[in-house]
Design brief:
heterodimer, A: mainly beta, Immunoglobulin-like, 6-stranded mixed β-sheet, 5-stranded antiparallel β-sheet, 11 strands, 57% strand, B: 6-stranded mixed β-sheet, 4-stranded antiparallel β-sheet, 10 strands, globular
């Protein structure tokens, strides 16, 4: 079955350093979504990427969708304490049903 | 409110008892998902409803778990003969679902924290 793998599982960075999390699918995706879950909260949608090679930016966050539509990344520039949380990618199989499969998430911890 | 709601917010039960968790999706959302999240872990897919199609039950961990959905509205997740390993936060999410444009954000409810003693 479809698998969505996310690395790293945990990341500790000094405040001000950059952070990247990677997402890889075993199958081609029609689109990929990213979510953020703050400690004690529920996942909240950040963005969706649809096109091959697509790059989108939200302030200090840069999202990329691979050319083959099987991988994606989220890069945060100059992390801040407000970036703390777990970042999940979620991919939908191309040509299949609407089910979205989540990665295990990357937990980001910021060291002051 | 216009968001996804879940009840109860917290449930403490004894091992062996049955529990029923409820999810009210956003009105008009045809897709509904149930996930389980153990402490500090990722989202574990349980079941997916899309309109009137047969639900995708491939994530249910055992036959003690079942879920129903009435049309495109409320869903209930039932866990029979609860075990301690069932302790987790159970999250429900809804989205506009199949047939819509590709923008298909999932809106999550606050979750039900289940503790099995």
């Amino acid at each position: 079955g479809q698998q969505v793998m996310q690395i790293p599982q945990y990341q500790h960075v000094q405040e001000g350093e950059d952070f990247t999390t990677y997402c890889n699918s075993s199958t081609t995706l029609s689109n990929i979504q990213w979510y953020k879950q703050r400690p004690g909260g529920h996942p909240v949608f950040l963005i969706q990427l649809v096109k091959s090679g697509e790059v989108k930016k939200q302030k200090r966050l840069t999202f990329q969708f691979g050319e083959a539509k099987k991988n994606s990344s989220l890069h945060i520039t100059a992390t801040q304490t407000t970036d703390v949380g777990t970042y999940f990618c979620a991919g939908r199989n191309a040509g299949r049903d609407d089910k979205i499969i989540f990665g295990k998430g990357t937990r980001l911890h910021i060291l002051p | 409110g216009a968001g996804v709601s879940q009840s109860p917010s917290n449930k403490v039960t004894e091992k062996g008892k049955d529990v029923e968790l409820r999810c009210d999706p956003i009105s008009g959302h045809t897709a509904l998902y149930w996930y389980r999240q153990r402490l500090g872990q990722g989202l574990e897919f349980l079941i997916y409803f899309q309109g009137n199609s047969a639900p995708d039950k491939s994530g249910l961990p055992s036959d003690r778990f079942s879920a129903e959905r009435t049309g495109e509205s409320v869903s209930t997740l039932t866990i029979q003969r609860t075990q301690q390993e069932d302790s987790a936060v159970y999250l429900c999410a809804s989205s506009l679902g199949q047939g819509t444009i590709s923008y298909n954000e999932q809106f999550f409810g606050p979750g039900t924290r289940l503790t099995v003693l």
